[in-house]
Every structure is written in structure tokens, then in C-alpha cells.
């Protein structure tokens, strides 16, 4: 998109990075696929507002997915959790909130799947090759551009081996012509995420 505002929000949990493919319950939501020939079923889908219409499109990217589980961690009760699963739930919940406030929303995926349709050489031994990983990541940008999104937000949950490295951060592109708008959005996202977590006692 010509003037997309970009921010990437992520929270760090304690755990190890990358493990076996996750198992999740598929979420099925009726929507409008941007281009079924380029993206996996359930990926790169567009949703209209459920109330009002701000004539603004937000692209939400649930990081990883499908062959790529992302970071792996454990809850306090010892349950193994996968970044791809957690990011997807946040994406879907955020989509519902945005649609109810008049935004068109395009999401990178609606279920535990990759975004791009794998091509020859993209997968080896049930995992992405470097080529496949690159294709799946760039497919998210392609989707956002095809949807002519005004705002792009990526959702991630990182992993770290030490408690000191835990916390939340929001990154943004500071070298684009609309860097000031990026910073404003990133600041709003970071402030709201921290406020919500603090309200739950997760500071």
C-alpha cells in the first residue's frame, strides 16, 4: 500500500525457540479471500465492519503458522504453548474488536496454516526451507498490499531463556515517509497492551 502505517507488537515469554508442529483447533469464519490462487485456504481473507464504516482497512498478521510453530513456551501449569497459536487468537480477537468499531480488516490467516501456497523447494522433511520461510513471510506483505491496507500490525510472542528478557515491545518503521504516523500508532499499541496486561496483574 502507498501509505500503510506499520507496527509490530510482541511479548516475550520464557521458553525455547522452535519445536514440533503445533496442534490447534481450526477456526472457521466466513470471509472474502483476497486471491485463492496465491494463498492457502483460510489465509489472506478480508472482513467487512460489523458496525459503521470508517473506510479504513487494517491488516493483521498472526505470526508464523502451519509448518512454522514459532517460539515454544510453557505456562505456569506446565502446558506447552506455541507462538503461532497464541498469535492467531490475538489476531482473531483484535479483528472482532476492530470490525465492531467500523474498520475493514484483512488477516494473514484464520487457522493453523501457512499463508503462501508452498511451491517446489519450499518444504523439506515437513519443515520450511529457507526459501519456503521467506515466501511465507513475504506473502503477508503481498496480501496487505493487494488489500490496499492503510494500517499493518504484526502480532508475535517471542521466547527467552531468562526472566530479565521478558516483557512487551512494539517496533515500527522509522525511515518511511510516514514515520511519524508509524511512531504514533506504535506508541498507542504499546501503551494499550501494557495497560491491559497491568490491569490483569501481568506487569
Describe this structure in words.
By secondary structure, the protein is α/β, with parallel strands linked by helices. Helix content is 28%, strand content 29%. Strands 1, 2, 3, 4, 5, 6, 7, 10 and 11 form a 9-stranded mixed beta sheet that branches. A two-stranded antiparallel sheet has the order 8-9. The longest helix has 21 residues. It starts with a strand and ends with a helix.
The end-to-end distance, rounded to whole angstroms, is: 35 Å
The total of helices stands at: 3
The share of residues in helices is 25-40%
The backbone outline, from C-alpha atoms, is globular
- Secondary-structure content class: alpha/beta
What's the SSE pattern?
EEEEEEHEEEHEEH
Bin the strand percentage. 25-35%
Sheet with the most strands?
9 strands, mixed
> C-alpha Rg, in Å?
17 Å
- The overall pLDDT, averaged over residues, is 85
Number of strands: 11
Amino acid at each position: 500500500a502507498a501509505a500503510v502505517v506499520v507496527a509490530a507488537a510482541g511479548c516475550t515469554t520464557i521458553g525455547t525457540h522452535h519445536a514440533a508442529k503445533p496442534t490447534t483447533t481450526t477456526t472457521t469464519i466466513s470471509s472474502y479471500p483476497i486471491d485463492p490462487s496465491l494463498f492457502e485456504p483460510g489465509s489472506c481473507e478480508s472482513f467487512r465492519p460489523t458496525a459503521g464504516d470508517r473506510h479504513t482497512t487494517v491488516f493483521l498478521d498472526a505470526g508464523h503458522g502451519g509448518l512454522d510453530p514459532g517460539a515454544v513456551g510453557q505456562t505456569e501449569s506446565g502446558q506447552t504453548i506455541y507462538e503461532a497459536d497464541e498469535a492467531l487468537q490475538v489476531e482473531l480477537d483484535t479483528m472482532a474488536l476492530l470490525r465492531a468499531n467500523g474498520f475493514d480488516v484483512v488477516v494473514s490467516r484464520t487457522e493453523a496454516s501457512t499463508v503462501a501456497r508452498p511451491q517446489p523447494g519450499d518444504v523439506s522433511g515437513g519443515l520450511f526451507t529457507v526459501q519456503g520461510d521467506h515466501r511465507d513471510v513475504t506473502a503477508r506483505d503481498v496480501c496487505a498490499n493487494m488489500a490496499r491496507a492503510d494500517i499493518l500490525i504484526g502480532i508475535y510472542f517471542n521466547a527467552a531463556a531468562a526472566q530479565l528478557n521478558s516483557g512487551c515491545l512494539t517496533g515500527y518503521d522509522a525511515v518511511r515517509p510516514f514515520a511519524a504516523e508509524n511512531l504514533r500508532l506504535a506508541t498507542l499499541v504499546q501503551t494499550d497492551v501494557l495497560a491491559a496486561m497491568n490491569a490483569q496483574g501481568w506487569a
